[in-house]
Amino acid sequence: MKLTGNDLKKIGYAEGKALGLALTIIEREYAAWKPADQLNLLQRVKDDPARYIHDEKLSPLAMEILKPADSTIALEPAGKPYKIYGAEAIEEGAIHQMDIASRLPITVAGALMPDAHQGYGLPIGGVLATKNAVIPYGVGVDIGCRMCLTVYDLPVTLLEDNKEALKKMLVNNTMFGQATFKQPKDHAIFERDEFSDIAVVKGLKDKAWRQIGSSGGGNHFVEFGIVDIPSVADELGLQPGKYLALLSHSGSRGLGATLAAHYTRIAMDVCKLPQEAKHLAWLDLDTEAGQEYWLAMNLAGDYASACHHQIHERMAVGLRSNPLMMVENHHNFAWKEQDASGEEVIVHRKGATPAGKGVLGIIPGSMATPGFIVRGKGVSTSINSASHGAGRLMSRTKAKQTILPGHVNKVLTAAGVELIGSGLDEAPMAYKNIHEVMASQHELVDVLGTFMPKIVRMCGDEKFKEVD
DNA sequence: ATGTCC
């Protein structure tokens, strides 16, 4: 009777290198022993491998058993092909990150938008369709970061004639960064079950309450401007002409940021990937954690929407005008959609605008350049997506080091833009040319109208200070 | 993006 692999499996050896090594050593060194004694020896090594690490015969086996299990999920050698829009203006790092994402075993398809730049895991401007799995960092840190545009039935001459009143309205009714309202407005979202059913969400309810209606930092803004509709746009319900409008860009604040960090940590624990892909760790949607993230992500998205609506409501009170229409869209989110063959896929848009056929969206420019009201064309090679803005031309660090405040102020004056506050890293020259970005994606969206910023508020309560 | 290190 000779010892077999099955005998070893019965005493707890899993299929793998240790099992093979055990059989080899037994055959070579312990052939004279009775099978029962051989098995007994292997059992002892299995139970207490540390005792055998200096054993001249059993050391290799003991070392192998002691080695941490290598459960790393391998990337596919070749990625799924994906289309890059505006490749000539996209940094190398973003394309490298998309290459890695295209090689995940869960990846079905991908696309890179013309405003893409490097992020954590999936690049900003990256779109990734996966099979039954969600990547928290494929959604992004600011879950549900979105745009909201309200067009008012008011003349654009107010922007000049009532400029000071409009500025004051922005200052009094918007809060950025750490600042929050003394009296937050209640909202139906706080009745959602997720706030009681999911422990991590429950712990964030107070913070969400304090921050509702506020805007974030970085590239978030609330601004008055002019919507220009060149020809009749039935889906907007607007006649051609110019309208006073309010555009906001913000996300899910501390709620979304904390949820993103929480579920990314869980994903990285349960989904070990090679170093270069580790931030792309995913949650299987059939697992409890995956389903919980999905609920929490949707809550954060609805909370971001609620924040925008409160911003616009507060402004409407001051304007004493009812909105003619609103357009809004998430651009950091994941959706269950159908691919070209009708299969359900999870589409991650991390800094990308949904652009399914007929879907309306807003693609902002910079504080001194127009944004665009768009209607998706439903192009499958872009996974029904478009860019979410102009995209950064330089990093925040480089912008702060190289851009001169005096130069920014001249550009703003030339564009007729009044700035209440912002950081230098949000200066127009830190961004790519929005017109070139739009040209790179003309096959993805139709432009229905433009929005030119006129009175802008971002995080930071002072204009750019000029120093000698 | 962010209670910017529970």
From TrEMBL:
Its cofactor is Mn(2+). It catalyses: a 3'-end 3'-phospho-ribonucleotide-RNA + a 5'-end dephospho-ribonucleoside-RNA + GTP = a ribonucleotidyl-ribonucleotide-RNA + GMP + diphosphate. Binds 2 manganese ions per subunit. InterPro entries: RtcB, RtcB-like, RtcB-like_sf. Transmembrane segments: none annotated. GMP binds at residues 219-223, 331-332, 364-367, 388-391. This is 3'-phosphate/5'-hydroxy nucleic acid ligase. Pfam families: RtcB. GO terms for molecular function: DNA ligase activity; GTP binding; manganese ion binding; RNA ligase (GTP) activity. It comes from the Bacteria. Mn(2+) 2 binds at H249, H331. It is an enzyme of class 6 (ligase). The active site is at H388. GO terms for biological process: DNA repair; RNA processing; RNA repair. Gene3D superfamilies: tRNA-splicing ligase RtcB (3.90.1860.10). Its EC number is 6.5.1.8. Mn(2+) 1 binds at D142, H220. The keyword Ligase applies. It comes from Chryseolinea soli.
